[in-house]
Hints:
By secondary structure, the protein is an alpha+beta fold. The chain has helices spanning about 1-20, 25-30, 100-135, 140-170; strands spanning about 40-45, 45-70, 75-80, 85, 90-95, 175, 180-185, 195, 200-215, 225-230, 235-245, 255-265, 275-290, 295-300, 300-310, 310-315, 320-325, 325-330, 340, 355. The two termini are about 65 Å apart.
Amino acid sequence: MKLNVKxxxxxxxxxxxxxxxxxxxxxxxxxxxxxxxxxVRTQLVERRQIDVTSYAVxxxxxxxRAAVAAQLMARITAADFxxxxxxxxxxxxxxxxxxxxxxxxxxxxxxxxxxxxxxxLAEKNALRLRNLYDQEAVSQQALDDAETALARAxxxxxxxxxxLRQAEVQRTYSSIASxxxxxxxxxxxxxxxxATPGAPLFIVEQIDSLKVEVSxxxxxxxxxxxxxxxxxxxxGQRVEGRVLAQVQAADPRSRTFRAKIAIGNVNDRIGSGxxxxxxxxxxxxxxxxxxxxxxxxxxxxxxxxAVSNGRARLRWLRLGSQRGAAYEVLSGLNEGDEVxxxxxxxxxxxxxxxxxxxx
Length: 359
């Protein structure tokens, strides 16, 4: 008799479980009691107009760059500078042996002194003969010869002065100075080396201002003097730039146009050859936005809890760029969807919620 009672009880329990399951009701929840609704704050997903920026990738380069070479052949006697050193315009960096140039200059100086004395003597002689000619004491031929000698002496003095000037200029070539305010990026010689005309001694770059050369697609144009933002990713720095020019000939291989943008570099943190991105403004467009405080992350996945029929539903999203305190939603939500902001740690998918809004 007891055995029959047990069998009957088990049968009733099994039937009840199957019946509840058929009705879509969790028998455990019904028995134990469902959790109370969790109070959560929500916002509606909105579509708003956003500013659009395209990126043009480029490389920084010095505003000016000079590979400085000697103009004569001579041995280097001084090169007291190092790579990376900051230099100014006119600062002498290399000196050459100028003993031979000094000798040429001294000789030219002596020639000029002799020519000057000869001209003074010829001038006095011509003046004397003019006076005598006025007194009819000498012939016209004698006067003409004296004036011719004076003209020849004056020409000789002028030539000697030009030779001296040339010797002085040649001697200045023995001191090689920086043509730019900037930094030495290459030192190619040292004391004792032989400088030869045309062979670079050092390379200096002006980097208090820089240029960024970027590549633009065929359908993109920028105007001279247009203001753009330039991002130096390695430094986490963004500076304002000014478009210098866009080359109007496309690269036939990449089908892109080159553009030059000038940027400031007051603290000298930005060097030449660094990766840069120019931020080019486009026409505004509409976008679906969700608050960054609504996002939940699991590994590489990002999603939100959307409220539907009084329950939280976890939706994974594909996001675009960040727009201030919000992200652009590319897929996973629709305009007007209600999402939980600052979701509590106890919130789980399927949990009953009571939504409220601060709006």
